[in-house]
Amino acid sequence: MTNMLASSLRVNGWNRSFKPDFVLIRQHAYSMVPGEDFRNLVIGLHFGGVPSSNSLFSIYNFCSKPWVFSQMIKLYHSLGPEQFPLNEQTFYPNHTQMVSASDITLHPHNTHKSP
């Protein structure tokens, strides 16, 4: 059984399907910018078995920066800090844990006007 990727393209009122022979991906598949999430296309290309210049598996994995950094930590441990220096980072499972009340230092400002 062969998986087939069929992309629909609307040309002059007609739907056209095609399967690319090869793809070159030159940008990130996912961005925080609205409308710039192309992970579904990467999955479709991978599902269809379309060859690419760079691994579709690695392109999909690069959609998550913490995932990439965790892979870099593995390299750091296997190669050592001399061969693979790495800046320390902290992982937070969600944004609410990034700032706690104990981390905030308040500096009161003098709001009284001088005479």
TrEMBL record:
Residues folding into a coiled coil are none
Cite a single GO BP annotation. Answer: neurotransmitter secretion
**UniProt protein name:** Synapsin-3
Q: Which domain of life is it from?
A: Eukaryota
**Residue stretches making up the Synapsin pre-ATP-grasp domain:** 14-52
- PANTHER family from the xrefs? SYNAPSIN, SYNAPSIN III
Synapsin ATP-binding domain residues: 54-103
| Gene Ontology CC, one term | synaptic vesicle membrane
